[in-house]
Design brief:
Oligomer: homodimer
Keywords (chains A, B): Membrane, Transmembrane, Transmembrane helix
Protein name (chains A, B): PQ loop repeat protein
Shape of chain A: elongated
Helix content of chain A: over 70%
CATH class of chain A: Mainly Alpha
Largest sheet of chain A: none
Radius of gyration of chain A: 15 Å
Distance between the termini of chain A: 48 Å
CATH topology of chain A: Monooxygenase
CATH architecture of chain A: Up-down Bundle
Transmembrane segments (chains A, B): 6-26, 38-57, 63-86
GO cellular component, one term (chains A, B): membrane
Chain lengths: 90, 90
C-alpha cells in the first residue's frame, strides 16, 4: 500500500511539474529550445497511457492514475498549443 | 491484456520521446527556454514512480514499467545535466 502512495505522489508531482514550464513560456513567449518532436511523442505516449488508465477505471480501479495522467495529457496539449502559438516569433 | 499493451507502448514512446530534445540541446547548446524547476519536478516525480516500479518488480510483476520508467529517469537526469552545463552560455 505504501508503495502505491509513491506512484500517486509521483504522478501528482509529474503533472504539476509542467506548470513552471508553461508559466515561463507565457512570460517569455519564447519556445525556441523546446523540441516539437519530443512534445508530440510525450503527447502520444501519455495518450496511450490514458487509454490504459480509462480501461482500469472502467474495472473500478486506478482512479488516481487516471486523474494524474489526464492532468499531464491536458498540460502537454497546452504546451504543444503554446509551441505553435509562439513558434514563429523566434 | 490488450490495454496493458497500451501502457507498455505508451511508456516506451514516453521514454524515447526525450531523445529529440536531448539531440537539440547538444546541437544548439541552448537551454534558455527549458524550465529548470519543471525538469527537477519531473525528476522527483519519475524517481518516486521508480520506487513503486521497483516494489512491483520485487513482487515479480511490472518489469516493463520498471524498464520504461528507468529509461525516462536516466534521460531526465541527462537533460538536467545538460541544462546545468549550458545554462551560463545563454
Amino acid at each position: 500500500m505504501i508503495f502505491a502512495m509513491f506512484q500517486l505522489i509521483g504522478g501528482v508531482i509529474l503533472s504539476f511539474g509542467w506548470i513552471p514550464q508553461i508559466l515561463q513560456i507565457i512570460r517569455t513567449k519564447s519556445v525556441k529550445d523546446l523540441n516539437k518532436k519530443t512534445f508530440w511523442l510525450l503527447f502520444i505516449g501519455i495518450g496511450l497511457m490514458e487509454v490504459y488508465a480509462v480501461s482500469l477505471a472502467m474495472e473500478g480501479v486506478g482512479y488516481a492514475f487516471l486523474i494524474t495522467n489526464s492532468m499531464s495529457l491536458v498540460l502537454i496539449m497546452f504546451i504543444l498549443f503554446l509551441i505553435f502559438l509562439y513558434r514563429n516569433r523566434d
